[in-house]
Amino acid sequence: MSSFKKIILASAVIGLIIFVVSRTSFGQQAMDQVGGLFQPLSSSPSAPAAQTSISPSPTPFPASDDTTDDVSADKVSKKFDAADQIKAKYKLDKTALKLKAKDKNSPEVTVGDADAPEFSPELKLQRWEGETSLKVKPDLSAIAAKDKKLSFANDKIIFDTPKIKYQLYELAPSAELPEGGYEYEIDLNEKPASNVISLDIETKNLDFFYQPPLDQEIHSGVDSCTQTECYKDGEIVDQRPENVVGSYAVYYKGGASGDYSLSGGYNYMVGKAFHIYRPRIIDNSGNWVWGGLNIDIAAGKMIVTIPQSFLDNADYPVRHAMGATFGYTTAGGTTNSKSIEGVIRADNDTPARGGKAIKATAYLAGTGGTQTFRFTLYSGLKPQPATTTVGVYSTGAGWYSLDFTVIPTIAKQSYGIAVWSNAVSGTCYVANDSVTGYTATYFSATYSATAWPTVSSWSSDANIRYSIYVTYLEAPSEIILKPGAVLKPGAVFK
C-alpha cells in the first residue's frame, strides 16, 4: 500500500473513533440533561439517515411547556386571582375552592382537595356543619399532567382533558330546583369506548333512596299508572316529574328529622339532605335522552348508563353525559301526589327527647283553588290536645308553617304529624319521596275546621315519607350533682 493510501486510511479510522466517542458520551449526556424528553432516533431501516456533522457544543433545549403543571397549587392560585366572579363566590384553600354554607343548616360545597398537590374535579357536599356529607370524584390516573387544564368562565369551574370536559357550577333556584343546587357536568368531546360513565362516591351518615317510575309502585285507589302519572276515573291523581323518575332522594341516615333550632340545635326539617336528579343528556344538535342513574354505596360508585344508540348517532360534543344535578332540595321530589283534601295524612316521627311542640310545617303543592288546612299530632289512633290555627293554601308550592294554639307537651315517643285540608276547586297535596322501609299513614275523613277525629284504623302508605315536620323546644336535661360538687359561675348545661 502506498504512503498516501495509508495516510487516508489512518485519517478515516481516527474520524470514526471521534464520531463513536461523541455519540456515546456527549450525545447521551445531552439526553440525560433533559430527562428523556427527546428519544434517540429509531434504528429501523425506514428512519431518516443520521447527520454526520457534530456541533461543537450542545444546542440548548427549549424550556419545558408551563402547561404541564396547569393544575398545580401555584397555577390554581394565579388563575383564581384573575377570575373575579369565582373569587367573589368561592374561598381558595390551596387546591380547593370552597363555597361556605349560608347558615349551619345549609349545604357547604368544596370543589377539589386542599390536601392534594394538584387540582382535580371532585365535589364534596356537606350539610348540618359536616354531620352528613357526600363526595364524588373521577378516576384521572390515566390522564397525563400535561393534558389537564383548569380554567374559570364566569362562575363555572372547568377542567379539560383530551376526551372529557368537567364543568362544576352552582344552580340558582328555579321551578325545578326551588332551593337551588350544584351541577357536576361531564361533557364528551368524542364517542366514548363505553356507554357507562362512573364516579367514585364517598358518603357520611346518608341513605340513598331510588325513586322508581309510578307504574312500579303500589298505589291504592287508582285505575292505572304510567311512569309519571296515575289515573282515577280518567283524571290524574298522582304525578312524579320526569327528572325525579329514576333519581335518588338522599336522607340523614337513621331518620333524623325535626327542627331543634329553638334549643340551639339543627333544623333537620324532614331529614332530607339532597336530591340527585336523573341526568338529561344532550348532543350538539339538541337531541337528548334520559340516562340511567345507579348509586351503589357498597361498591362506592355513582354510575350513569347512556343508551348506546344515542352515542352512535350523536353530534359531538355531548353535554351532561354525567349531568349530575345535586339539588339542595329539602322537600319530597314528588309534589303533585298524596292529596290531603278530605284525607288526614300523617308522617311518623320520634323527637330526640321530651319537651314542647311549637309549630308544624309541611311542603304543600296544588293545581289551583283556595284550600284551608291545619295540623295536629296523633298518638296512635287519638289526636293529641294540640292543634294549629287554620292556614290557607293559595300562593303556590312551598313550605307552610302554622303555630300550635295549644302547645302540647311531648315525650320521646312516636307521633303522627298530621295535615288535613278541605275539598274545594283545585287540589292540594303534601310532597313526598319513596323511602324504602318507611311507612306513612292516612285516614279519609270529611274536613272539619274545629275538631280532629279519632281514627278507626290507619291505612298505610308503604315506603313513602311525607314532607311534614315539627319545631320542638326540648326540655332541659336533668342534672344530678354529687355531694360536695360546686358549680362554676357561668356554667351552661344542655
Helix and strand topology:
Blueprint: H1 3-33, H2 73-82, H3 84-89, E1 91-93, E2 96-99, E3 108-112, E4 123-127, E5 132-137, E6 149-153, E7 156-160, E8 164-171, E9 181-188, E10 196-204, E11 206-211, E12 224-225, E13 229-232, E14 235-239, E15 247-252, E16 258-259, E17 267-269, E18 272-277, E19 280-282, E20 288-290, E21 292-296, E22 301-305, H4 308-313, E23 324-327, E24 343-349, E25 355-366, E26 371-379, E27 382-387, E28 391-393, E29 398-403, E30 409-410, E31 415-421, E32 428-430, E33 432-444, E34 459-466, E35 468-474
Antiparallel strand pairs: 1-2, 2-3, 3-4, 4-5, 5-10, 6-7, 7-8, 8-9, 9-23, 10-22, 11-15, 12-13, 13-14, 15-18, 16-17, 18-23, 19-20, 21-22, 24-31, 24-33, 25-29, 25-30, 25-32, 25-35, 26-27, 26-28, 26-31, 33-34
What does this entry look like structurally?
The protein is mostly beta strands. It has two domains: 259 residues; 132 residues. Helices cover 11% and strands 39% of the residues. It contains four helices and 35 strands. The longest helix is centred in the N-terminal third of the chain and has 31 residues. The termini are far apart.
List keywords for this structure.
single chain; 494 residues; mainly beta; 2 domains; eight-stranded antiparallel beta sheet; globular; disordered N terminus
Task: Estimate percent helicity.
Answer: 10-25%
Average pLDDT taken over every residue = 84
Low-confidence blocks of residues: 1-67
Beta-strand residue fraction: 35-45%
Largest sheet data = 8 strands, antiparallel
Strand order of the largest sheet: 1-2-3-4-5-10-22-21
The number of distinct helices, counting runs of at least 4 residues, comes to: 4
How many structural units, i.e. domains? 2
Instruction: Give the terminus-to-terminus CA distance.
Output: 112 Å
Radius of gyration based on Cα positions: 33 Å
